[in-house]
Amino acid sequence: AGLFSWHPLLMALAFSFLMTEALLIFSPETSLLRSFSRKVKVRVHWALQLLALLCALLGLGIITYNKHLNGKAHFVTWHGLTGLLTVLYTGGQCAGGVLLLYPKLMKNWTLAKLKLYHATSGLVGYLLGCASLMLGMCSLWFTTSVTSISWYLAMLCPLLTSLVIMNQVSNAYLYRKRSQH
Q: What residue ranges are annotated as transmembrane (predicted)?
């Protein structure tokens, strides 16, 4: 399990910790950086998301190489397919985030619209990541390693963080709508 064990560790680090923290940076209720300027929050968000993407790419590379070494098929389970889609989507979302750093590259788009689309598509990517984690928790390896109440508690983590992040994005959207009127 030596090489393989890096895969769940890196993916959990990417999606359960780094990406969650990167999204919560903008929460007025939960952010450790709430007193910092928006510019600082954006830079920390960017750095955490980049670290999350790097961990996810490394985790994907490790599982792909491990399957190759063991002569196993690639991307044949729901977890594998969702995981691949999630990592690719995350890469695209990070590229989209660069446009928010340089909004002049997107002529004919307002910064407010770019932020809304980035937050909404980021939520989709985050939910994909949580779904992939949960599918991984249904794998034979995980259900053999983590049993009884621990399994349910592990499943609860991405479920609860998904609800928190969805609430944060919907609150930001509602705030934006209210401030337009």
A: 6-26, 46-65, 77-102, 123-143, 149-169
Alpha helices in the chain (DSSP H): 6-12, 19-24, 38-69, 78-101, 111-136, 140-145, 148-180
The CA distance from 15 to 128, in Å, is 10
Q: Which residue has the tokens 């995980």?
A: 142
Alpha-carbon distances of 1 from 4, 13, 24, 62, 63, rounded to whole Å: 5, 18, 33, 12, 11
Q: Are 48 and 22 contacting, i.e. CB atoms less than 8 angstroms apart?
A: yes
Contact 94, 48 (CB under 8 A): no
Let me know: does 127 contact 167? Beta carbons within 8 Å.
no
Place of tokens 């937050």: 119
Query: Taking 70 as the threshold, does the pLDDT of residue 19 lie above it?
Result: yes
| Domains of the chain in sequence order | 3-179 (1.20.120.1770)
Instruction: Convert the pLDDT of each residue in 69-109 to its tens digit.
Output: 999 999 999 999 999 999 999 999 999 998 888 888 888 88
